[in-house]
Amino acid sequence: MSAQPTPSRPTDPRRTSHLQKRASLLPKPSSITLDPSVLIAQHAQLTGTHPITIGPASVLHPHSKISSASAPVVLGPGVIIYERAKVGLGMGEGTEAESRRSSMAESRRGSRIEGARGEGTVLGRNVVVETNAVVEAAEVGEGSVVEVGAYLGRGCVVGRFCTIGAHCKVPDNTHLPDYTVLFGVAERRVDRTLLLRPEVQEMRTAFHTKQLDAFRRLLPNNIAKWT
Amino acid sequence: MAQPFPYTYYACDCFDSTTTTASKRASQVLAAAAEEDERDFDPRSPRSNYSLFPLEHLLYCEDCQQIRCPRCVIEETLNWYCPSCLFEVPSSVVKSDGNRCTRNCFNCPVCTAPMTTNSLDTSGDNGPPYILACPYCHWSTVEIGIEFEKSTGISSQLARVANGGKHIPTQKERDKERERKKELEERRREGRAVMSPSEESPTTDTEREEVAPSHDELFANLGAFYKSQMEAQTPSNPFSSHDINYSSPSAYSRIVNLYSSTTSKKNKRNKHTPFREAGSALEGLTIHDSAADAAAIERIKREGWGSTLSPSTKHAQINPNLRFDNELRPLATLLCTKRSKRCRSCRHILSKPETKVTSTRYKIKLLALNHIPRLSIRALPLNINPAQQQPLAPPARPESAFNYNGLKSGIPTHFLLHLSNPLFDPIRVTLATPSTTPGKVQSRITILCPQFDVGANTDVWDDALASTLSPINRTSLINDAGQIEAGKIWDRGRNWTSVVVEVVPGFLKPVAFPVLAEDGKGGGEAEGDDGGLDEDEDVLEIPVFVRIEFEADVVAEERGLGVSVGGGDAKKGEGGAREKREVAFWTVVGAGRIAPL
Question: Where are the residues of the annotated region Disordered (chain B) (predicted)?
Answer without folding.
Answer: 159-212
